[in-house]
Amino acid sequence: MSEPLAPPAAAPVPVPAPLLELADLRVTFATEEGVARAVDGVALVVQAGETVGLVGESGCGKSVTALAVLRLVEHPGLIAHGSRVRFEGRDLLALAERDIRAVRGNHLALIVQEPASALNPVLTVGSQIAEVIRAHQQVTRREARRRAVEMLKAVGIPDAELCYGHYAHQLSGGMRQRVLIAIALACRPHLLIADEPTTALDVTIQAEILELLDGLQRQMGMAVLLITHNLGLVAERTRRVYVMYAGQIVESAPTEALFAAPAHPYTQGLMAAVPRPDAPRERLAAIPGQVPPATAWPAGCRFNPRCPFAWEKCRAEMPPLLPAGEGREARCWLLADGPRGEAAP
Amino acid sequence: MTPPAIPLLDVTGLTVHFTRRTGFFGSRRETVQAVSGVSLAIGRRETLGLVGESGCGKTTLARAVLRLVEKTSGTVRFDGQDLFALAPEELRRMRRRLQIVFQDPYASLNPRMTIGRAIREGLTIHKLAEGAAADRRVRELLEEVGLSADAADVYPHEFSGGQRQRAGIARALAVEPELLVCDEPVSALDVSVQAQVLNLLMDLQARRGLSYLFISHDLAVVRHVAPRVAVMYLGRIVEEGPAEELYARPRHPYTQALLSAVPVPDPLTKRPRIVLPGDPPSPVNPPPGCPFHPRCQHPAKDQDCVSVRPELVERGPGLRAACHRG
């Protein structure tokens, strides 16, 4: 069965299997207004050790995507058949409940936006970290406690021993977010999904928390999927980025390329709408209209009612993700054939 | 950019302290020093931006400017008249000229009242219009803020966040105010909608000659609307001046740290970041000396900073900072 060895020069470079791979992820919610297709065919890839951004405005489906990866979508939400979530080679959607629990908080962790409601108010913060460690690792109570204190130190809490015995209400917002990071990282996950991890915090605290996360990420070699509406954070913290609009990925690109020349009109609009701290005072280029409700996505391209370039085809037919240069894709008909008599942007 | 001789709003040495009960059944009292010795002036057609992080006292300051809270000391003069010296009836009449736009219009609009009725209320109370004239005025106001005239019959919950904020602005404008205090008016909105509302506020100012006290934690947003900016920390203004100068060359170490912490939407911009240790101290027990000294990263920080309170002094063209070393 041994085949002749190919000369080393011709051997294909093995492409590492992605750490996380979503394909055709669909999540629906049954509401009084009809079925909301909150996440509608999302595909994305995160490689081991890298930081990937998932950016979009409220209601675009970015948080539901995060919850679906961990299978935390609650009734009346439903992950549609045919959706695929592969993490470290396993199909998370096919796992039994106890097996998905073994993955959550262990190799795959989530930090959410609101540090106040994510902690149990009647347990000390230290015991909540120890609980996670004991749930996933065969260690004694004493050892779990020791590691919990170590984690509190690692996230930069000054008096970790004292903090172990505190309750959530005794901590400031910044301290609570540190505790949540400590819980998320207690089992040294391979992938951290951080959903607006600093949105509720003041900008100086945000800077401190993000520096901390950066340091821990380098130390542990974990990958981060950073979900945010803040383009500044995406520019500073990620290497690749996916842009979501109305339940779909509308553009994906290396971060520098995306900011240098956004391909999708929505991404272009988003970037023009952001005031910059270093730019002169001028009128902002606002995107007209608003995001449609998830129960009534427009036909054709979902951005067409707000798009300055839309023509008949955009209203009739949904564009697929089309190649837009090296390592880039955008869901826009302008990339295929542009409207007659009009140049592509 | 010095304010004119008689500013529309003139706040001098304003101090607002609250006493609250804490501890077992409220057995202890403590004083929250929300605003301490704040002075600022806004001329007609002028915008003053006020930035600061949570708990710095910016919302209390906004409320004191409208006399929605009582002062401890200092004065607030509007068009030359001391608001805190006015009798209730005079104050009510004066309030027509100062209006406020809140962060969350959902919390400030009555859920059982149509948008039209909410706007009309101000017209009726101040006897500005009645009957068909009032209806017409409501429709005009809705159109002025970019809503359709039909929006008068809609309830707040039927609106999106951006539409609600427009309705909140229309309601404030109904009484023809001269000064609009905007307290985090776009913080709850998505960026694409935020841009629409910021543009609207700037258009309205140009059209109506309004003055704004524009309060936000978002430095980029403030830079956008305000030619003059004040930075607040722990109840005090620590730096104030022309936005361009203040953003390009901040003198106070807190302003420097604040600006360095704002992520810039450009992956090629790499700036040194000043990371501040710890949380801001509590306004119940502000530190002696410079309120910023426990977190200050200035290399020349010394005993003066710990014990002597720095005053706001001229540090550049029209720019004042309260720092012994800045």
Question: In oligomeric terms, what are we looking at?
Answer: heterodimer
Query: If you average the pLDDT of chain A, what whole number results?
Result: 89
Number of strands of chain B: 12
Stretches with pLDDT under 50, minimum 5 residues of chain B:
none
Structural class assignment of chain A: alpha/beta
Q: Show the largest interface.
A: A-B, 47 and 46 residues
Q: How many beta-strand elements of chain A?
A: 13
Instruction: Give helix % range of chain B.
Output: 25-40%
Instruction: Indicate the overall shape of chain A.
Output: globular
CATH A-level architecture of one domain in chain B:
3-Layer(aba) Sandwich
Radius of gyration of chain A: 22 Å
Number of helices of chain B: 11
Tell me the distance between the termini of chain B: 21 Å
Helical residue percent band of chain A? 25-40%
Encode the helix/strand succession of chain A as letters.
EEEHEEEHEHHHHEHEHEEHHHEE
Outline of chain B, from the CA principal axes? globular
Tell me the CATH superfamily of one domain in chain B. P-loop containing nucleotide triphosphate hydrolases
In short:
The complex is a heterodimer of chains A (345) and B (326). Chain A has 345 residues and is an alpha/beta fold.
Give a structural overview.
The complex is a heterodimer of chains A (345) and B (326). Chain A has 345 residues and is α/β, with parallel strands linked by helices. Chain A is built from eleven helices and 13 strands. The radius of gyration of chain A is 22 Å and the shape is globular. Chain B has 326 residues and is of the alpha/beta class. Chain B has a domain at 9-97 and 179-187 and 210-321: P-loop containing nucleotide triphosphate hydrolases (Rossmann fold, 3-Layer(aba) Sandwich). In chain B, the strands form two sheets. In chain B, strands 6-7-8-3-9-10-12-11 form an eight-stranded mixed sheet, sandwiched between helices. Chain B is globular and about 70 Å long. The mean pLDDT of chain B is 91. The interface between A and B is large, with 47 and 46 residues.
